[in-house]
Fold this sequence. Notes:
Layout: H1 5-29, E1 33-35, E2 41-43, H2 44-60, E3 65-68, H3 77-82, E4 86-94, H4 96-101, E5 107-114, E6 117-125, E7 130-135, E8 138-142, E9 145-146, E10 159-162, H5 170-180, E11 185-188, H6 193-199, E12 205-208, H7 213-216, H8 219-225, E13 229-231, E14 246-249, H9 255-262
Parallel strand pairs: 3-4, 10-11, 10-12
Antiparallel strand pairs: 1-2, 4-5, 5-6, 6-7, 7-8, 8-9, 12-14, 13-14
Amino acid sequence: xTRDLERALDVALELADAARATVLAHLADGFSVERxxxxxxxxxxxxxxxxxxxxLVARRCPGDGVLGEEFADELGGADAALAHEWTWVFDxxxxxxxxxxxxxxxxxxxxxxHGGRPVLGVIDQAVCAQRWWAAAGVPTRxxxxxVRARTSTSLAGSILGSTGPQFLPDDRRARFDxxxxxxxxxxxxxxxxxxxxxxxxxxxxxxxxxxxxxxFAALVPVVEGAGGRCVDWSGAPLRAGSDGGVVACADPRLxxxxxxxxxx
Length: 264
């Protein structure tokens, strides 16, 4: 790895500033909600924000790949983007359902991959003016202040977060339910905001399945830069090509017991 990730973070924070301004402008002016072919919602806020991010990367880092949720197919697809050594990965609005409902847990996700591995991440919540960022070797900060995930090895005392049971594939639901039976409480809803809460000491665990690369690329550095771990359901590091299962632990010592419960 030869790129200076501190400088890459400067670019990422510039991207986050531009994204936040775009999101707030569209919220002030009003926006429309449509449905994609798969039934999931999309708004003109999503599309406008991704265009701004893509345009800015093209100016600041013209040799890098770019992969975003909304325009990947039209602009060469994931294979073309991931053919680059360095690839920016965007989810312009993670939590579009929350955005459409007026609930400020939606975020903009900005990730950077090196050789397919997440090495930098930004989670930005525009309405609440909250931002988390980290990179390999650069600990996680929230609005400029260092944050740390909580330390606890008590699974029975843990708070587990997940976006919703309806998003868990049938073949993983029974395993997830085994984990639910062992923790103190479950926080449903929140999308990527759950991982930011974990990095700030609020949650002990986040477990999900069916996530795409643009959903988790930015999350890994933020969780791990706060002292946690973020892996797939087998315990393997998350990267391009991962199967979409995500396990985030505030205290890495919880990872073994959690993975045992999630095992087939």
